[in-house]
Structure formats: structure tokens, C-alpha cells
Design brief:
single chain, about 550 residues, alpha/beta, Alpha-Beta Plaits, 4 domains, 26 helices, about 60% helix
Length: about 550
């Protein structure tokens, strides 16, 4: 259910809307109400609704001022204004605050229902789009490991350094054994995001403990590799003459131990997949790919084998559709070249790869689109440390828009080469741009410390430094570690704290001196930043 809040100073209107609007039919739960902007703001910040229905002209704080506060706090819910005033300035301000719809009273319940239905549709589309993008990112998280130099990890994902491998004693052991990989995929949830580093450390020690306890004939070694925050791979190496069934049974037992310890220590949702047994160490990466793929397909807190997945689907879901070379090495080589702005080398890598793909003649249009999506994310990851946000270099705003027209390899090659040229040419402006960005942030900081008592907006400053609002927001956060609004409020709260400690002003006077006309809102924000109410600070 989507959550909604109603704010109107006419109690009859509030009562009428709560009763007449078919909330359940629309899939909406009305979670709160307010009779003025101040009360509405408190309810909104407490309930975090998806939809806000509000009047404009209300006592204490009007609807537009309330929405301004809501936007400053980062809440992006759909705002619907129901106003008896048709003043153009109201409408223009509403537009600036990204209001979903502006309705003039009187308005029928049918009209409100229609507008709410449209808002719900947009929310669902946005959620689907976000889920799809997050799902793709989640599946591609372990591509970050492509730039790692860890030897065993490289072997497991198929990008081994041949010279190093032939010199390694560990490779001798690999050559003499059979291998199988267990893949672990932790479900990306809010609970997972709040797991502490200490808990992760205990979890990793538990896996190491499992590794040390279960090494027995015919299992010769167990190596756990953390591919990233969400994916791990466990390499099981067996004696060469081990029976395949025994090897798979041992893998199932180990996966069960991992499941038991994970549930006991973290109580989080996860998926486990077991790849197929490989006779040749060169195929370890295939077993890793199978294990991760199977983990992604299995139910939460369950174990599934790749061989069972193949039987269930009637085909080999990975290798049947990926008869061309694995793109891992291509991704890594291209990412390294782009990261260092080696334009000619990057273009050659791209052209050579496409040429090889054409010779194999196995890439379908859907697979070409997937290549584009994956490469876009690889570029995003490898350029992040260079301080580059791809959305600022290109007009397109999403991966789907970037790649939706890539129906064949020719289009893919042209698209990729064009992106490489733009990204690499950006480096020529880097030094000059970095100086400009630093100067812009320094100006903003000075301005904030000088004008903290005024209504400071990012839009206003973006016009002064001639940098777009969104880009300026990113530059500011990169240089200060804080969002613009967070930094402004922190400065205001630090100054307010000093003023309160001086004891020369009443709380409402302090609030006004640091830019707040609404004393209760100032008090709640002060507690959020300092952990104390302003009155508590006076008592100390």
C-alpha cells in the first residue's frame, strides 16, 4: 500500500476526503493529517508518505512553505495541491517544488480519485524502474572485482594472469585436482545495509572456521573469496580420482553449514547456488559463473545445484546462450583503458571485440543490449574514483535509454566508440574543471557562513557560480562529504548552539537568527543534529 497524508485547515474538508476517497481501491493508506502547515510537516516527516494532499493558504505555515521544507529534507513524495486560489505565483512556485498536480477548489471526489490514480501509476512505474536498475546493479556488483589483482579471485572469474599462474605453486595444486564453486548471494535489504562491520567480521571468521573444519579426504582445500559486499564464492578442490556424486554431496553439506551459520549469526536473507564439477582448472571460472547464476535463481535461504537447474529448464541456461567468449576480460581491459583515458587503445579493444563477436555470429539483439547495460555499469564503477558521473557527460539519464536502441553489433560498436570518445576527451578539461569546482565550493562555503540567517537555496547559488543545480550538488558533496542542505543546517545548528550557550537570547530569537521562523521545526532539527533539545542545553 502507498502512504498518503492530507493537510487542510478546514476540518470538514479533511473529514470529507478521508471518508469519500476510495483509498483501499486505489491501493493507498491514509496515514496522517494536519490542520496547518506546521502540523502537516511534523506528520509528513514522521510518516514519510508517498503522496501529500495539501491546501495552500493555511495558518502558521502555508502549504508551499511546508512543501519547501519537505523537499529540503529530501522527501520526494507526490504532492497534490488543492487550493481555492488560482494565483499564478502559487502555481509557478508549485512547479518549482515538483508538484504532481495543482487543482483549484471546488473539486469533485472523482477528480481527486483520478489524480490519485495517476500518481499511484507513476509511483509504481518509478518503483519498477528502480527495481530493474537495482536488480541489474545487484547482479553486476561482482564486476567491480575485475580491476582486482588478487590471483585466486582472477582465476575464479576467468581473468587469470598467465605468467603469474605458471610460476605459482598454488597452480600446481589446481592442475592436479577437480574443482567446484559454491556461490553465495546476500539479498539486498534494509537489514543488510545496517549490519555492522563487527558482525561482518564475525561472519567471515565463521566461514574461515567452516573452511578449517571440513577439509578431509577427498576434499583437499576450501578457499573463500569475497567478490564484493553481496557476493562470495567458495572454491572446493578435490582429489583427482574423487567420485562426482561424493564431490557434489560434500558441496551440499558445506553449503548447508554456511546456511546454518549465516542464519545464526546474521539472520539475513541469502541465496546459495552450487556450480558443476570441473576436471580442468581453466574451467573454474565457468563453475563460478554457474554458481552465482544459480544463486540468483534460487529461493531465499535455500540451496540449488546448477545441474538441477539445467534439468529443470531443459537447457544449459548459461552456456547455451553464451557460446561466444566470456566478456569478463573484455570488460576489464576496456575499463582499464577508459579509466586512464587511453582513447585509441580503448577504441581498438572495442572494435576487436565486436569483430570477434561477428565472426562467431552468436549474439542476439537482446544480448547486445545486455552488453551495453553491463558496460555502462562497468564504466560507472571504474570512473567513479576519477570523480566522473556519467549522467553529467551525456543527455540520457538512464541505462535503459542508453541501450534501448542497440539491436545489432554495428549499432553497439558505434554507440560504444562514441561513448569512449566523449569520456576520454573529458580528461582534457579535468585539471581546469577541478580548479573551477574547488573555487565554486569555496565560494558556497563562504556564502553559507555569511548568509546562514537567510533563505539559502542551491538554485540561487547555481546561478551565481554558473553550474547546473544537480551537478553543483554532486561537486559540493564530493568536496565536503555532506549534502548541501545538511551542510547548511549543520552550520546553522553549530551557530545556534553557541548562541544558546551564551544565554543572551530566547530560543525563538536564536531560531530566527539562524534562519528559522518556525521554532518547533528549529527545535526538532536542533535535536536531530546535536542530540539535545535547545531547552535541555540551557539547563546544562
Amino acid at each position: 500500500m502507498w502512504k498518503a497524508v492530507i493537510v487542510d485547515d478546514d476540518r470538514q474538508v479533511l473529514k470529507g476526503m478521508k471518508k469519500a476517497i476510495p483509498w483501499e481501491k486505489l491501493g493507498i493508506d491514509c496515514v496522517g493529517e494536519g490542520t496547518d502547515g506546521e502540523m502537516g510537516l511534523q506528520v509528513i516527516m514522521k510518516t514519510q508518505p508517498d503522496i501529500i494532499l495539501t491546501d495552500v493558504y493555511m495558518p502558521v505555515m502555508n502549504g508551499l512553505e511546508m512543501l519547501q521544507r519537505v523537499r529540503e529534507e529530501g522527501l520526494k513524495g507526490k504532492a497534490i495541491i488543492l487550493s481555492g486560489y488560482s494565483d499564478f505565483e502559487y502555481a509557478r512556485t508549485a512547479l518549482r517544488l515538483n508538484v504532481h498536480d495543482y487543482l483549484s477548489k471546488p473539486v469533485t471526489i472523482q477528480t481527486i480519485e483520478s489524480v490519485l490514480s495517476a500518481a499511484v501509476t507513476e509511483l509504481e512505474e518509478e518503483k519498477d524502474s528502480w527495481d530493474n536498475q537495482e536488480g541489474l546493479k545487484d547482479e553486476l556488483e561482482y564486476y567491480k572485482s575485475l580491476i582486482s589483482n588478487d590471483w585466486l579471485k582472477s582465476v575464479m572469474i576467468g581473468i587469470e594472469d598467465q605468467e603469474l599462474i605458471h610460476m605459482s605453486q598454488q597452480n600446481i595444486n589446481l592442475r592436479e585436482r577437480k574443482h567446484l564453486v559454491i556461490g553465495i548471494k546476500l539479498k539486498k535489504t534494509q537489514k543488510l545495509n545496517t549490519v555492522s562491520n563487527a558482525t561482518w567480521s564475525v561472519f567471515q571468521k565463521a566461514l574461515n572456521h567452516i573452511q578449517s573444519e571440513i577439509v578431509f579426504s577427498p576434499l583437499k582445500s576450501v578457499d573463500w573469496i569475497e567478490l564484493n559486499h553481496y557476493h562470495s564464492a567458495i572454491l572446493l578442490s578435490y582429489e583427482r580420482d574423487s567420485e562426482s556424486k561424493l564431490c557434489m554431496d560434500l558441496a551440499q553439506e558445506i553449503a548447508g553449514e554456511i546456511m546454518k551459520h549465516t542464519q545464526k549469526l546474521l539472520s539475513i536473507s541469502f541465496q546459495i547456488g552450487i556450480g558443476s564439477l570441473k576436471e580442468d582448472w581453466h574451467e573454474i571460472s565457468k563453475s563460478t559463473e554457474e554458481a552465482i547464476h544459480t544463486a540468483s535463481r534460487s529461493l531465499p535461504n535455500s540451496i540449488e545445484r546448477y545441474e538441477e537447474l539445467v534439468k529443470k529448464e531443459g537447457i544449459d541456461p548459461i552456456h547455451k546462450s553464451n557460446e561466444v567468449q566470456s566478456p569478463f576480460q573484455f570488460y576489464r581491459d576496456l575499463a582499464e583503458a577508459v579509466k586512464h583515458y587511453q582513447k585509441d587503445h580503448a577504441i581498438k579493444i572495442a572494435v576487436d571485440f565486436v569483430k570477434e563477436c561477428k565472426e562467431t555470429n552468436n549474439y542476439l539483439s537482446s544480448q547486445v543490449k545486455t552488453l551495453g547495460k553491463e558496460l555502462w555499469l562497468v564504466f560507472t564503477y571504474c570512473l567513479y574514483d576519477n570523480g566522473i558521473n556519467l549522467e553529467n557527460l551525456f543527455e540520457e539519464k538512464s541505462i535503459s535509454k542508453q541501450t534501448e536502441g542497440l539491436n545489432n553489433l554495428e549499432l553497439f560498436e558505434n554507440w560504444l566508440v562514441e561513448k569512449i570518445k566523449v569520456i576520454c576527451s573529458h580528461n582534457q578539461m579535468d585539471e581546469k574543471e577541478n580548479i573551477r569546482h574547488k573555487q565554486a565550493v569555496e565560494y558556497m562555503i563562504q556564502y553559507i557562513h555569511t548568509h546562514y540567517s537567510e533563505n539559502i537555496t542551491l538554485n540561487e547559488l547555481s546561478e551565481q557560480v554558473y553550474i547546473s543545480r544537480n551537478y553543483l550538488s554532486q561537486i559540493f558533496k564530493k568536496n565536503t562529504g555532506l549534502s548541501f542542505n545538511h551542510y547548511v543546517n549543520k552550520v546553522r545548528m553549530d551557530i545556534a548552539k553557541n548562541l544558546i550557550i551564551e544565554g543572551q537570547h530566547l530560543i525563538y530569537e536564536v531560531a530566527e537568527k539562524v534562519g528559522f521562523k518556525n521554532t518547533p521545526y528549529f527545535s526538532s532539527l536542533f535535536k536531530k543534529y546535536t542530540g539535545l533539545n535547545p531547552t535541555d542545553l540551557l539547563k546544562q
